[in-house]
Amino acid sequence: MMSTTETIAPRQAADELAPPLSVRQLGWRRFRRHKLAVAGLIILMVLIAYSFGGALFVSEKYANYNDLNQALQPPSATHPFGTDTIGRDIFARTIYGGQISLFIGLTAVIIETGLGILVGALAGYYGGRLDNLLMRFTEAMIIIPQLFLLIVMAKFFGGQVPNFTIFGRTYSGSLVVIIVIIGITSWMYLARIVRAEFLSVKEREFILAAHAMGTSTRQVIFAHILPSCMAAIIVSATLSVANAILAEAYISFLGMGVQPPTATWGNMLERAYSYIDKGVPWLWFFPAMLILLTVLSINFVGDGMRDALDPHSRTV
Amino acid sequence: MTTLLEVTDLRTRFHTPEGTIFAVNGVSFSLAEGETLAVVGESGCGKSVTMMSLLGLIPIPPGEIVSGCALFHETDLLKSTEATMEHVRGREIGMIFQDPMTSLNPVLTIGQQLTEATIKHLGLSHAQATARAQELMEAVGISDPAKRLSDYPHQFSGGMRQRVMIAMALACSPSVLIADEPTTALDVTIQAQIVELVIKLREQLGMAVIWITHDLGVVAGIADRVAVMYAGFIVEEAHVDDLYEAARHPYTRALIAALPRADQRRGQARLKSIPGAPPSLYALPPGCPFAPRCEWVVDRCWAENPTLQPAATQHQVACWVDTTQEAGQ
Questions:
Q1: Interface of A with B (CB under 8 A)
Q2: Above 0.85 for ipTM, yes or no?
Q3: B30: left (phi over 0), alpha (psi -120 to 50) or beta
């Protein structure tokens, strides 16, 4: 296969020629070869600039300002994306909704990755009974559909957390609930990946050598074995951001997600649902388009990262 | 010379689904300060397992240390807690492994791996540890250490990696260095360099060395005393000169006879080999484990396993037959 020879050649050259490329440089070089990933990265940066940079020009107050006289206006010069059912400016709401959606994506993935690494590392390193216990639990979590878990947990924990204010902005308490439940319902695949990697790496001679140097078990797990899993973890985490954004959109669409007035792309869709046959497509088109673009471009970036970082997937 | 390490009656077994492997069967030896002890024997005779047992690196289960005592500075290594052992390993006893290609972590830089032990054991700051790492790299003969510390293992050749391994093992100036076949995976010219490097560092640091090998040629150049192992037993232990001049155990004699000689012309004599293979360690015979391959074998050998007995000054052997008296066939 061409790609295999291409990817191996620069590594060999790096061994012999004077200025060796670092792992990062090699990865970046492979990433750039993946055109869709580069396009995805650019789109993603534009979307981030849109959500966070847009906030400099449009105030949150304006995004939440409703004027029933202005309800359901089609896109125009004053309201580029039109207005929603209670007359809020959709353009402004997609900006603030984007912040929340992207924020949920990133933070849920931090929780997910932390849990996945912890469960996978413990199961893989210690093996035996602990491995059995943790893996059966992981499987139990996997066989229950994530959406079902999300709905049950959102129903159960929703409204338990009071609203809170950070940097002068008030957020719905449901935001925290959503982040946590997305995090704790999506770590299973990562745990399996990490466990598999640990199982093979812990038997390698350099781990024995590390023990022989007096390295503590905790150090061996986190400083010696975990770096070998980094590529797989980064790729998985990237793809998970997209999944978390989608998961938020699902449950917000079902009305159990982040509660208004905090906007997310997902709960903007929910409002649009009852108007789907009323000839007001701008209600759902813009938030849906933004979700689509974000998820697609993150997936492309994740794909490119896999090519760039993960040596195992190159044979596929 | 004071005794540094005193091992008595070490027995290690592995419980596997196929049965119990009797890997080490009552090994006793001692190591004095600054002394070099070579442990020789065929592959799978328990040399490495003995050393791993001392350092608490045997995975339990399936491994089990059935009995034994290993006194090091008045501490029994075999009964110490994991926390104590973490301070012994790397700090007091350094270890070098056989294959430098697999003993370095490929995803960490040489600098990260070389500074870890000194930061942990000696409490150095990151900057101090880096300076120490550079010193060590120089001591083991790696040029441009400052630059090479940020390199990854794949950017080093096999010999260079073994030098890095030695530098890692010596980072905290341990009093004992265990070298587990450190030259086996290297080609001959590099082997000689590594042996010389260890000899030089041993003199500089005054540490004791346990050199595990199956290469009797290397032993002659480096060791003070030699212990010959077979099937998990030490069968002969002697001063290095005594061993080459007056080996007593049939196995040792066969090993020495199997060495190629520089004064033999090609074609004049075939290389001697020892017929047969080492016994299975699943079920050891009641008698001497070497009996089936021994040319001196007598009836008693099949029934009883001889223990290590003094045969001359500083020379112990485990054999029923006095091989110096009778002529072998």
A1: 14-15, 20, 23, 204-217, 219, 223-224, 227-228, 230
A2: no
A3: beta
